[in-house]
Design goal:
Layout (H helix, E strand, L loop, with lengths): L1 H22 L9 E12 L2 E5 L4 E5 L17 E9 L7 E9 L4 E4 L3 H6 L6 E4 L2 E12 L2 E5 L4 E5 L21 E9 L7 E12 L8
Parallel strand pairs: 3-5, 6-12, 10-12
Antiparallel strand pairs: 1-2, 1-4, 2-3, 4-5, 5-6, 7-8, 8-9, 8-11, 9-10, 11-12
Protein name: Bacterial OB-fold domain-containing protein
InterPro entries: BOBF_sf (IPR036700)
Keywords: Signal
């Protein structure tokens, strides 16, 4: 019985420690993947400092060639960072960003590399989440409050009229235009006299670093 209690104590301690380590980049080995939510404290041309709730860490974006010219991530932004822990022997631990989602911009920035290409392969462009449908594709046409996306398998019309803001106007950072890569979540409206269309509930712009090729 005493042995079983010891095992239970170890299991409970591990259950408490594991989530804490998962959120602590300073406790993770060099090169390991990590995902953190938090608030941007300040930003510059090489990246930004993230307050992840239990401390702060530097997020590096210096390999993203476009970022230094016109970086849109500012202090106070709520973000989700996915990347690798960079724990060099003589340098402070940081995170090399692979992707950054900025809540206020409804935009997902990601590096243009082979891993991201695999993540956004055509067979991943149509996904059901609970009762909603999420489509990912390239915008091929914009018409008023509607636009068309090509998922690689088919073209779908997206109706944004039920959204609280117009993602195609000239206000704010998100301005949906032809050629952009987006992810749309919503419900299908199956009309009798009209072609089927997706009524959008949320739209996320996927912004890839276009300054380099995927194999560079």
């Amino acid at each position: 019985m005493r042995f079983m209690k010891s095992l239970l104590s170890v299991a409970l301690a591990s259950a408490v420690v594991a989530p804490a380590m998962a959120k602590n980049p300073y406790a993770r080995p060099d090169g390991s993947w990590i995902s953190l939510n938090g608030t941007v404290v300040e930003s510059d041309a090489d990246g930004f400092i993230l307050d992840y709730g239990e401390g702060i860490v530097t997020v590096e974006m210096d390999d993203w060639d476009w970022y230094g010219d016109a970086y849109p991530i500012l202090g106070g932004d709520q973000v989700k960072v996915n990347g690798r822990v960079d724990d060099d022997l003589y340098e402070t631990t940081s995170i090399e960003a692979n992707s950054v989602y900025v809540k206020d911009l409804n935009t997902y920035f990601y590096a243009n590399d082979a891993d991201e290409e695999a993540l956004l392969a055509p067979d991943m462009t149509t996904v059901y989440i609970d009762n909603d449908l999420r489509l990912t594709g390239t915008v091929t046409k914009v018409d008023g409050r509607e636009f068309t996306i090509d998922t690689g398998r088919r073209e779908v019309t997206v109706d944004t009229s039920q959204m609280l803001y117009n993602p195609m106007d000239d206000k704010g950072f998100q301005q949906i235009d032809k050629g952009e890569f987006v992810s749309v979540t919503g419900d299908f409206d199956i009309g009798i006299f009209e072609s089927n269309e997706l009524v959008a509930e949320s739209i996320t712009t996927l912004y890839r670093d276009k300054t380099k090729n995927a194999d560079s």
